[in-house]
Amino acid sequence: MKIDKELHEVLYFRMERTMRKLKEYTRQVLKENKYGITIDQWIILKRISEDENGLSQTEVSNSTFKDPAAITRIIDHLCKKQLVERHPVENDRRAHNLVLTRLGKNLVVEMTPIIQAIRAKGIEDLKVEEVEALKINLDKIYHSLDK
User: Fold this and answer.
1) CATH classification at residue 79
2) Domain assignment of residue 1, yes or no
3) Is 100 inside a domain boundary?
4) Angle in degrees, CA 71, 74, 92, rounded to 5
5) pLDDT of residue 9
6) Where are the beta strands (DSSP E) in 1-147?
7) Which of 66, 75, 105, 127 is deepest in the core (most CB within 10 A)?
8) What pLDDT digit, counting tens, does each position of 18-38 carry?
9) Total number of domains in the chain
10) What are the residue ranges in the chain where pLDDT is below 70?
């Protein structure tokens, strides 16, 4: 496969361009619906909602591929908005588990159909087989970079 191509022909450029477009589209939809949270805040809220016992900041950082400093800032904002609380971990005064407040849980329930619609919009012109092939190929690219 020829690798030396014009920038707009490079696969990674197209992947980055697509992700930026998705983030911008999502930002616009969230703004129009007046949720007052960013896509990164949504990702963190959604991830925390998936574990009823709460998650450490490290677990959230690792599972969302965000750096710890960014996670701290996002969590601080979510706590100020009363969507997330830090609960102390028994037997470890330094550690905290992140849990959703009732307001946070309600927001996740309310926003989930909108986020699902955004994701569906991005792939509406693809056949099921194409989506599955894309997932497989993106995973192959991801794992090849671990070698």
Assistant:
1) 1.10.10.10
2) no
3) yes
4) 55
5) 73
6) 84-89, 92-100
7) 75
8) 999 999 999 999 999 888 899
9) 1
10) 1-5, 7-8
